[in-house]
Design a protein that fits this description.
- The protein has about 450 residues and is of the alpha/beta class.
- Helix content is about 30%, strand content about 25%.
- Strands 3, 13, 14, 15, 16, 17, 18, 19 and 20 form a 9-stranded mixed β-sheet that branches. Strands 4-5-6-7-8-10-11-12 form an 8-stranded parallel beta barrel, surrounded by 6 helices. Strands 1-2 form a two-stranded antiparallel ribbon.
- Helix 5 links the parallel strand 5 and strand 6.
- The protein is globular.
- The termini are far apart.
- Bound molecules: pyridoxal-5'-phosphate (PLP).
Length: about 450
């Protein structure tokens, strides 16, 4: 009966306009006319408790996505390295480790965060781009796996650390992904060592003695077609065959997730079948079992995140009805930065009559979350949910306009936990050095 009720609820959710029909499961369900998170958590009461704007992440969705990848690939050794740039709260990192993931990092700070979260050095891969050789030396001192994406760095590295084995990030010259800003495996991209440069790589490692233990690629974000991954994989197989000490192949990430009604996602099950078969054949060809790695970020956490915001004003102009919210591109930059689409629904009025709104933020420039969206009728004070706010949302948030960054809540087994406090004026001033020369002005401010 309970199961039946759930299906009915989900069907109802899918039947209203603001619910993305393509989503196999959606983070919020309608229960007795009210939105609820998995495990029966009420987003409105979360806002009452912690205030808005508020980021909420649901562990059940992260686990579902993690299990989907794990089950899709049937190879003897699969390692899922969570790309922590997507969402880097230390509790999320610890949860990923509990699920069995390793960590993909791109800065020495992410490496350090990973170690603080409890990952061992060997569970972390560091894939820097255009960082100083000094930063790479710090990663050596910490003992993590290192990915080199430049022949000049390979040469310097080999002379400094001849005994430290590395992985090569290959540029496969594949133009893939949804957005030019995240398409990183093409010929004009700054990332990776071109697969045409293998003769130079061989010359360098012959002289330095560097052992190559991994080969890696990452071509972009939001890649729908499994064949794009296979095309890249073939390039990596060709290169991998040249390195007798190889231990792993890392196919990066870029799995597409649905953001809007009718959106498709990467068919991870089809991808898993195709890659697993080809990977096992390759291991047979070279006579050794290698580890297969992926570095998903968005696929693991995007759908798990909801961004809850309050409507400050409803403003009708000559051409538009704006819903102005208590947030902006400072908290969630993807729509303005990537033209990304995020579904928006009115949590306060889920079953209300649908009206058209352009949802905008409070930042002092064009700051649009969604244009002409059909949303349950909005009143000032209502709470809206911006969906798919788990990946590249909080982690890209800033203090622009001197606004505080919002708190984060993590829902685990139906229990909500505060995992980051709302910032305060002290946080804004932290690290700023107030010059004594202005001390009178400071005193005036302090004493009115
Ligand atoms: C090297 C590397 N690996 C993995 C990822 C994660 O990609 P996605 O979030 O699309 O899964 C990124 C994203 O930028 C990346 O640069």
């Amino acid at each position: 009966m309970r199961e039946q009720e759930k299906t009915t609820t989900f069907d109802r959710l899918n039947s209203i306009d603001c619910a993305p029909q393509a989503f196999k499961s959606f983070i919020m369900f309608l229960e007795n006319g009210q939105y609820q998170l998995h495990g029966g958590v009420d987003p409105l009461s979360l806002c009452q408790q912690y205030g808005a704007p508020l980021y909420v992440y649901d562990a059940a969705i992260i686990k579902r996505q993690y299990d989907r990848i794990r089950n899709a690939f049937s190879v003897p050794d699969l390692q899922i390295m969570y790309a922590c740039k997507a969402l880097s709260n230390i509790n999320i990192l610890r949860y990923m480790r509990q699920l069995g993931a390793g960590l993909d990092t791109v800065s020495i700070q992410e490496v350090e965060l990973g170690l603080k979260a409890g990952f061992t050095a060997s569970e972390i891969i560091y894939t820097p781009n255009c960082v100083s050789i000094d930063e790479i030396a710090e990663a050596v001192a910490l003992g993590v796996k290192i990915n080199i994406d430049n022949t000049s760095v390979l040469e310097q590295f080999g002379q400094m650390f001849p005994d430290y084995p590395v992985c090569l990030r290959i540029n496969p010259h594949i133009l893939a992904g949804l957005n030019a800003k995240t398409s990183v495996g093409h010929i004009d991209s700054k990332f990776g060592i071109s697969f045409h440069q293998m003769p130079l790589v061989q010359r360098i490692i012959k002289v330095t003695g560097t052992k190559i233990i991994g080969v890696h690629m990452h071509t972009g974000s939001g890649i729908l077609d499994p064949d794009v991954f296979l095309q890249g994989a073939e390039i990596l197989f060709n290169i991998a065959a040249e390195f007798p000490n190889l231990e792993y192949l890392d196919f990066g990430s870029g799995f597409k997730v649905p953001y809007r009604q009718g959106d498709a996602e990467t068919d991870i099950e089809e991808l898993g079948q195709k890659i697993s078969k080809r990977f096992k054949d390759f291991c047979k060809e070279i006579g050794r079992d290698l580890t297969l790695m992926f570095e998903p970020g968005k696929f693991l956490v995007s759908e798990a995140g909801s961004f809850l915001v309050k409507v400050n004003v409803v403003k009708q102009t000559t051409s538009t009805v704006f819903a102005g919210i208590d947030s902006g591109l400072n908290h969630l930059i993807r729509p303005m930065f990537y033209d990304a689409y995020h579904e928006i629904s009115n949590v306060s009025n889920p079953e209300g009559k649908k009206r058209f709104y352009t949802v905008v933020g409070y930042i002092c420039e064009t700051d649009t979350f969604g244009i002409n969206r059909k949303i349950g009728e909005i009143k000032e004070g209502d709470t809206l949910c911006i969906h798919n706010a788990g990946a590249y949302c909080f982690s890209m948030a800033s203090n622009y306009n001197s606004r505080f960054r919002p708190p984060e809540v993590f829902v685990l087994d139906g229990q909500a936990h505060l995992i980051r406090e709302r910032e305060t004026m002290e946080d804004l001033l932290k690290g700023q050095i107030q010059l004594p020369i202005f001390s009178n002005a400071k005193a005036e401010v302090e004493h009115g």
